[in-house]
Amino acid sequence: MNCLIQAQDEPHRPLLGTFPLLFLLGITTALPAMAAEEQALDTVVITAAPMSDPLTVTTDAKAPRQPVPAHDGADYLKTIPGFSVIRKAGSDGDPVFRGMAGSRLNILADGELIHGGCGGRMDPPTAYIFPSSYDSITVLKGPQSVVWGAGASAGTVLFERNFKPYEAPGFRVFGGLMFGSFNRNDQVLDAEAGNPNLYVRATATRSSMDDYKDGNGKRVHSRYMRWNSSLAFGLTPDENTRVQLSLAASDGEAAYADRMMDGAKFARENVSLKFEKRKISSLIEKVDAQIYYSYVDHVMDNYSLRNNMGIKNVSNPDRQTTGLRLAGDFNLGEMTLLKLGVDQQSNRHKFRGSGPGSQDMSPYQSRDRVADAAFDDYGIFSELTHSLSTKNRLVGGLRADFWRAKDKRGTTSTAGESRSDTLPGGFIRYERDFGGANPNSTFFVGLGHSERFPDFWETIGQNKQSETSDSAFNTKPEKNTQLDVGAIYQITQALQLSSSVFYSRVRDYILIDATRALKPATLTRNVGATAYGGEIGLSYAMGRNWKGNASLAYVRGKNRTDHTPLAQMPPLDTHFSLDYDDGTWSASALLRLVSAQNRVDKDKGNIVGQDIGPTGGFSVFSINGGYRLRKDMRLIAGIDNLFNKAYAEAISKRNTVDYLPAQITRINEPGRNFWLKLDLKID
Questions:
Q1: How confident is the prediction for the chain on average, in pLDDT?
Q2: Of 218, 224, 461, 518, whose CB count within 10 A is highest?
Q3: Within the chain, how many helices (H) and strands (E) appear?
């Protein structure tokens, strides 16, 4: 156990500690005799969402979580084993899955593949998502799906709003309030009304928090405020047809501890039109189509959210995104389902600003925007599911993406240049359901290949350079081939095990290298890389009211070109929780143990951050308790980091807005945090 709970300044011990493995092995072999025939409990507060289907995790987006997340999607994903977050401040962290960040992980909001505007990743896609306004979060692990956009070498995350038809006039409401330490204050309202022929759904959220304090009582420059709203109108002329028009807007501000500027504006506007038709014929099971437009207007400066008596700098990038998707499900007999489709997305990025060296001293709002990049992708995909028998299936897919990009900057060696690539992808997976006493158990093995076009942040953002020129625009596409193996095993009615392991070999892995002497300029390089690891989860219902959970996530990577560890890999991460729920009262305790990380490659990493140095391990303990005031209302209170531990995640950013002299430390996580949450759900 020592390897997991050492302090940050203790020496490195073996990364793969024996305690969690022995614990998992012990409860796997010892508990079946205790399990009897009790039913598993529904999760009241989510601490580690399990895998539900092969390489798929689906979780309730509206359920409370511990540790209590920030307003954004990245913090919600932390409760899914395998996910980490690169902390920059109180919000807007970048999600990392199995050590992979950026566009290696596709993020879709209600069917739309979204991007941020900031060249320095102030606003990753999850910054524009308040998950409580959605119904479900689905994670598809690895390159084992081709239907949700290009790339996705690490996986795909779907934030979805589900539709349930109305059989008679009615309404549904979800509302939530949360208050916590550091003046945390959240409100969410999701209301829908309709009848069998039409419906309207409105959502509104607001979240704010002041600067938090870490376990040492030191203030971290981290305050934020965000709001968003959306309105959807739908027509359902019959039970198999739906047309929906959606409008959305959001904005906010956020302070950052990892840089000398803050986010003063995060405005986003969005319009989307969906069409869905089911049961068209014996051949055509479903056709769905979507077209959308999104505009991000982002402002960062060094004076709105911090004291600045010197030169004032401001940067105002924006991004316009348009996209469409058309797909159909076809029944090719009783045993075979085929999905065919096309998708397209165009991104136009522009910039304006002011600061030292500028000859134009007028306010930035009055200046013309200057285009610096254009990206277009046209994709075609097919995915087939074929039942070999009642318990055996083959799932496979193929995808081709036709990319075009143009460097619209005027001062680089590639100014005005265009490039195009045709990138293939695909996978095949075998699934087998267990019979006999394990009706809900499945074994799977899949092999996938994904080719990812270098994104804006790798080629143009923050003036990335190559090893041979002042531009990284011609960086090679990244090519990942990955093996995924695992099982969901219902050991008894009360005890379930899920496991998923992978081995990935990447050609032309896109590495961001800041080791050169001329900083802050960074290089974009192609290297060879490998990564392997996986996740294990156990859930055990102990009687009618008690439930125990354990999860473990591990990843290890190697840079084959430089003969070094692959940078920005999180260490071994384990969660143990014990939950009680009798239908009225609930309580749970969460213990998180994280190993030390000595496998680092200083100043190398991804578009979000680079390795700083080794870290020690840590342990964090949290508790919560709840009371169901009535069937549709519950009150839950919790304490995160109960013992006020001072710690930082291994992959988090350097604290450059430190209130103490040390400037090389990572941004620490929040200290002891009290919170109170009230939810109302009428359905």
A1: 90
A2: 224
A3: 5, 35
